[in-house]
Amino acid sequence: MMNNILNGRNFFLIAKSTIFSILIVFSLAGCTTFGKTQGLDNNGEIFEKRLLEIPLCPGTEKAFAEDHEVHTYSGFQLCYRESYEQAEWVSYTITREELIKVTGRLNNFRPDTQISTGSAELSDYKNSGYDRGHLAPSGDMTWSFESASDSFLLSNMSPQTPAFNRGMWKKLEEEVRKWADNFGYVVVITGPLLEKNAGEYECIGENKVAVPQYYYKVLLTEITDEEGNSFYTAAAFIMPNEDIKGSIWDYAVSVDEVEKRSGLNFFYILNDSIEDEIESCMDFSIWKE
User: pLDDT for 234-276, tens place per residue?
Assistant: First the structure.
């Protein structure tokens, strides 16, 4: 299953070739870990950074998992939950190079025929009062026509209130693009928090698309200092699906908090000491610079 996920796109973090990393760990202010640009997983083996995009869930732990269907598209991958009629996570890496647009917003919303049980339909959202809210934003996918088009599949949508989708969620998406430009790349894992049984949520349409109460976004990047030491740093956000005010930082949380509420395991490929350090961090000073 993991090979199928990874072979589905040309993963790109810092260069269009595969980059590896073995991290020689030190402590550093800002809840980061750093070393030379190489890193070891828990087995002491070199891993490909593209694996950082993939969270552990039943759909990625085994080939066939009930109600967890993993698919790869041009630019992102996701795990679809039929019971909620939407993805529980969508992941990708956005790079500085991919900020160069080759196409505009396509608006070709359509069902996803790859979903074996059938995805949500356009009619589910019609007159529902909710936006077809992107999980992988179309603004992050305009580096190719194929990725831009795939971002409008309904498997990449979730019912969001208009005020949220066009407000704070949009502001956070815009910040991610700024960070990609600043840092060179950002690994993004995002989705709705599906904390209750599907039947306990408000739903829309004939296909009973669940309306989530909260959404999350987990981010990871790597920074190199003047001495050539590189280190990972992470940030995470949980936002309610409503008209919210203030700053995006009012909704910043640790990665651990998102793991606790989502049941997902992020960045598991990292050495445990590195993973524990960055996932418990609540110092986002590097991201605020």
Answer: 999 999 999 999 999 999 999 999 999 999 999 999 999 999 9
CB burial of 217-245 (b: ≥16 within 10 Å; e: otherwise) equals bbbbbbbeeeeebbbbbbbbbbbebeebe
Cα angle value 229/230/236 (rounded, 5°): 145
Residue 68 known to be catalytic: no
pTM score of the predicted model:
0.87
Among residues 134, 179, 235, 248, which one is catalytic? 134
Q: What gap in Å lies between CA 213 and CA 1, rounded to an integer?
A: 30
User: Looking at this protein, which amino acid is placed at residue 108?
Assistant: N
**CB distance 210 to 202 below 8 Å:** yes
3-state secondary structure the chain: CHHHHHHCCCCCCCCCCCCECECCCCCECCCEEEECCECECCCCCECEHHHHHCCECHHHHCCCECCEEEEECCCCEEEEECCCCEEEEEEEEEECHHHCCCCCCCCCCECCCCCCCCCCCHHHHCCCCCEEEECCCHHHCCCCHHHHHHCCEHHHEEEECHHHHCCHHHHHHHHHHHHHHHHCEEEEEEEECCCCCHHHCCEECCCCEECCCEEEEEEEEEEECCCCCEEEEEEEEEEECCCCCCCHHHHEECHHHHHHHHCCECCCCCCHHHHHHHHHCCCCHHHHC
